[in-house]
Amino acid sequence: METQHFSYDNKIVKYFAYATILWGVVGMLVGLLAALQLAFPIFNFKLAYTTFGRIRPIHTNAVIFAFVGNGIFAAVYYSLQRLLKARMFSDKLSWVHFWGWQAIIVSAAITFVLGITTSKEYAELEWPIDIAITIIWVVFGWNMFGTILRRRADHLYVSIWFYIATFVTVAVLHIGNSIEIPYSWLHSYPVYAGVQDALVQWWYGHNAVAFFLTTPYLGLMYYFLPKAANRPVYSYRLSIIHFWALVFLYIWAGPHHLLYTALPDWAQSLGVVFSIMLIAPSWGGMFNGLLTLRGAWDKVRDNATLKFMVVAVTAYGMSTFEGPMMSLKWVNSLTHYTDWNIAHVHIGALGWNGFLTFGMLYYLFPKMWKTKLYSEKLANAHFWIGTLGIIFYALPLYWGAIVQTLMWKEFTPDGLLAYPNFLETITQILPMYHVRILGGLLYFVGLFLMVYNLLKTAASGKCADNEEASAPALVTSSKRARGEGLHRWLERRPVQFMVLATIAILIGGAFEIIPTYLVKSNIPTIESVKPYTPLELEGRDIYIREGCNTCHTQMIRPFRSETERYGEYSKAGELVYNHPHLWGSKRTGPDLAREGVPGGKMYKTNVWHYNHLLDPQKMNAQSIMPAYPWLIKDDLDTSNTSAKIRAMIKLGVPYDKAPYPANYDLVAHDDMKKQAEEISADLKKNGVEVASEKEIIAVIAYLQRLGRDISVKE
Amino acid sequence: MKLVSHYLQSISDVGLYPSISLIIFFSFFIGMIWWTFKKSNKNFFNDMKSYALDDDGIKSSDQSGTEI
Q1: Where residue A628 sits, what CATH number does that domain have?
Q2: CB spacing of A507 vs B36 below 8 angstroms
Q3: What is the CATH number of the domain that holds A194?
């Protein structure tokens, strides 16, 4: 057989590795700011651009898509070439991928700061950037499959299967969740509404965790852990079984984010069952990783890379046990909407993704720069500081979550809420928020040590942009050899493999979502539910712009502790005109689903809302809500109102039917003016002079509408 | 979206589809487990275990992973 000479592209790996580090620093720094804001509202700086509602999506997106995203690409570009004994298919595609992804990250940061967001968690980017992501993702896939087709190795190692599943599923998820109708160059409404929108969003959200934060990192683990330990994988059998089980099961588990909400019961149960089953493949992966080190634990003692990887895999195991437990309905009734969720994701993000990335980087730098790590001691220090950081981050939040949820649910012997004022439950756990900042700070200091250590390492060696390699040419045959099993044939045929994996996840996704269209009784219609007025619609868009939904849910669950506090629980039929849904996932402030019910438990006057938005601390000294003074200063932009109405009509909101006049999009402005003047007059009557054109009028109109459609006189 | 649901409702016995897909999934899975434990595949699995370690041409000395 002829031996072929070629080279591995190290330059692209180097760039992705540097980008990982850079965005890691940025993302975690923004995370620190967010943590500070939650404890000390002064850190919102009374500036629109820096309020928590806009900062939080920057933090989550930077860590997930910029830090972990570049980490994925560094790992894929390094390991894929070596596992396939081939250079990446096209250098051009590699560089389009690299710069395209960085451009997306930068445009994401800019649009979030400006309040341009869809409000859907981890899918906040607006439609032009969504399209850019799709294009760059296809470039990545094209490059990967090109390489696979030109490979010199016979088999596809299990890491590559994980990469393929990642590519396919993220593509499907991203497109499925981003179907939206643009009404302007930077804004859109999703085609789904209410319950369906929530279901699609969490089908996406959950599987973004699965296929962006988990499968590529499992692929990474299966390559870099054996490498760093110089040990074979514990069981290749197990790796195959847990791969298929993971791909099959994960896609169904999304509804566990929506337990006790207005989502139909059958969908909730489906999510629970599949979440519990997920423990098996997840722990299969964890054991396979940890047992790979059997007989090599002595190496863990002196090797910081392995230390990071061991803790990462352990954190993966803890997180994937905790997740299914949180999917049990009774556990969920306690943990949901609390900081437990935040602690849970940080075990995953800081422990699993963060530490595995650090392990990979500590392995890659000396290897690629052909030198020794500058300081093993510093790396060890990073490990211990980072581990302490995770503990100091997560434990206070777990503690706070339990305290808060029990306070929410406690009744006096007379049957009244023991803590009727939501703020009390926040003030109580504020010390935990302070400790959490310390945890984040420790983690960040560790990261800083790594940056220094790796830069010093790079300076002491030289990274060859092209690494020479040679391998025998591959004689391929598409026929199945005699006695060759189906799976072995399959894993030599990447295209067929991709098609099968796609079918697997599509069926799972389809059967989770399609029935909500099919079964009419899933979303009972409620006669009294009417579309928003144009002013309320504008107010709602400002609510989305300011990210109010990051702290305020709009979904009252059917518990006495919630109906006593907020009012009647939320119904699916109330939400049919909500493009997008705004259920939220975390209550840092009270639920607002019944905020506008006159005489209801949450009802506040227009003046109260005005004063509260202007200066929350004036109303409640201990409030941690940011102030929104610009809402009073800025005029409401009504240039898109007509386009918004037209987009809503396209989505099935009946602005085109009676009682609305024909061409409602054109006369909507009159309605809007009338309603704004009423609110302005009411404010004036109560001593507040504010022009009816200001943004705050629209926000008040929206808040006063919330939950009103099915209000019963009490 | 109305179009989608209309189309789906027009398929007769559409309710049967989830059961069919479950059966397909389940049998695929069983088949795969059977395949991984087939005796004749033993060597293949042992080779693949250390696959990641071979790629730069340096075989390490201590990669004698024992059978499971």
Answers
A1: 1.10.760.10
A2: no
A3: 1.20.210.10
